[in-house]
Amino acid sequence: MKKPLLIGLAAGLALASSAASLVALRSWWPALEALLGSGAARRLLAVEFAAPLVCLAALALFVRVRPVVGGVALVRVLLCGIGLAWCAFLVCSPSYRRLWLELAYGPAVACAALALVFELWSARWRPRPAKFARAGLVALALTPLACEGALRVLASVRPSPLLVRDERAPGRVLERNRKIYSVARFGMACNSGGHFDEEFKRREAGEVRVALFGDSFSQGIVPYSMHYSTVAERALGFPVDNYGIAGVGPLEYEQLLLREALPLDPSAVVVAFFVGNDFEVPPDEPVADPRLSSWLDREHVLLWLVPRRLARLLRERRENPTGVAGEQLDRQSLDPKVDLATRYPWLFDPLQEKASISKAGYLAIERARVVEACESEERTLMPAIRTLVRMREECAPRPFGVLVIPDEFQVEDALWADVGRAGVARDRPQQVLARELGAAGIPVLDVLPVLRGVAPLADGNRHLYHLRDTHWNPRGNRVVGEALAPFLRSLLEGAR
Predict the structure, then answer these.
(1) d(CA 496, CA 485)
(2) How far apart are alpha carbons 62 and 19 in whole angstroms?
(3) Which domains does the chain have, with CATH numbers?
(4) Model's pTM, two decimal places?
């Protein structure tokens, strides 16, 4: 390609893309000032203006470079531009949204133009140094993309919590988490559906079976005989099929209901709704450009997520080297004949339990949950509630109820003193659920008063949750199971 045409093409692309970004910046300016503050918004404006100027200035400096650049060189320029622009977008943009994508047009083309400048510059060098320099730039630009691809392949072959991406498709989330968490614990393997319960069966004539849906609270990290669904099952005398899978939410509960539970014709359906994170349901509107979001949203990119997770794990190891509760139970398959009281004495005496998470890490988790459940706008809570209402309609005419699981900060006053703030309604999630679900005619079992009614132990805490682990211990499971049994009985009697 001739030099004037090459330089003109690069300059035209830089100017056109930067103009598009500046137009977008003008239309988004009030929102940007509100989001970033006036100072940061002005700095962003300076970057948008500087990107084409720097690019054009660099191109002007090399007008006298040899007039011919081959097709291979242009491919290198394109690859370098894509790799550098991708990395820059991940580092600079807080999330993948139309706003940030439009603002990235100019800087992205500037990256490609600067790669072209480097190509022209290296043409003036001796062959060997130029060859090494160009190869190094291509490797630098493409290595992150290659690493991301390798991590995604590994995640599909060997799923693990370390390699989880924030996906919105409920079916994919469900199957991925089923593979990750379906491991034997306390001598009991999961059933054929990946749930920690006995094998589910189709309900026969005259038989009563209840389907229970939930996340890690329902999956549990206690022995099967101590789980709240089993406690309720023993009190009722009929099966409570536990469809719990860790790391899922209301959209996945709905998938489990439609795909697995309804074909077995349960007598009633109950959703165990955890206020700590079950409100995290995406808005009802469809996601724009999901394929682009898969590569341009930080929460979807493993190269961004994995180093942060590893750093957090290393910090936890350093701050809490003896943490064992949730960690070991997810990894070990124990012989049923092993004496649990000897191996895990804290199952029977919570005062002997060692913390699973460091204090700083746990308080950070709980503060984030306070913000999500108690301080966020009410409209952000509604998608989850609408999902529950939809599930009630899908399983009709069967009875449908909701078990509301409180977060530990709502039960333990000492924890609330560390993470709560003045003026924040501690019980707000339960109030919203009771109001909205009550208006929809859905029975609700709120176990928060029951848990708060448990007498504290010697240290002043109730010890219904594992020590800094967010899930119920055997003591908490027993209390909830004993409250769930009469709720299920009344639910079934009300349908007669």
Answers:
(1) 17
(2) 24
(3) 3-154 (no CATH), 170-494 (3.40.50.1110)
(4) 0.77
